[in-house]
């Protein structure tokens, strides 16, 4: 019988398939190697394909769509409730096949090649920053062991370490001197790589009108603008601004029962990197208001009656909702005017 819905459990080398017909009867259970997987799915009559939103899922989603299939990606946490008994590849594929047909299921939008490429730059930048921080801390600690303390701040490392290495009469061991020189050269190389990544992000930012449009929002700069456009596109997968803010993890966690509503701290679900960018952008807005006494009257009043971090999180939440409206409706940013 013809497969109408196909659930695929993705992996590196082995792929498990579970297919059902229009009546929900199982008609396909198959385990395929990577060499046979793509051609087998392409040769199937057009059907609904469900996959977990994980590594390589966007690639396969684009590929199968080109061959006439309807492809939907499901967040892994939404598949888990449909897994029966023990966890196996076959059970996961069956659960995906079941979950993809649920009318209220939430799906992940399949990203384009360009979107994934920009997100790769953001990932590379984060890795480079973490690596640079680790090398700087290592260099500081090593020199401190021999009595050379470098003042705080990343910029101090280059100057102070160079001065220490340039002093041949400070008694520093030749072995330590050569190790410090290698670490300092590594830090400079990481700085150059970071500059190259940011140049590429800047070039993409300038080529995209939607990036330049959302960058008009206070607290949104190069990184936030490029990431939000590459990550969610036109935000059509979110039905409301609140849903978008909840996806970022900036809405309160709720634990209500018996008609009594109980709200807690923000949920911190979803994309932690995007939330990090939004919160730090909101901190910049708050700092500017504190310095100048000017800015959004709403945030200024909130900072006077609420703790600083609460006000910053509220501003990040508001920025998220503004971004959703601008991306979904294609509108410009219009700052609020004082009454």
Automatic annotation (TrEMBL):
Organism: Jejubacter calystegiae
Domain Transposase IS110-like N-terminal: 6-145
Name of the protein: IS110 family transposase
Residues forming coiled coils: 180-207
Entry keywords, A to Z: Coiled coil
UniProt cross-references to Pfam families, sorted A to Z: DEDD_Tnp_IS110 (PF01548), Transposase_20 (PF02371)
GO biological process, one term: DNA transposition
GO molecular function, one term: transposase activity
InterPro entries: Transp_IS110-like_N, Transpos_IS110, Transposase_20
Residue ranges occupied by any Transposase IS116/IS110/IS902 C-terminal domain in the UniProt entry: 211-288
Coiled coil in keyword set: yes
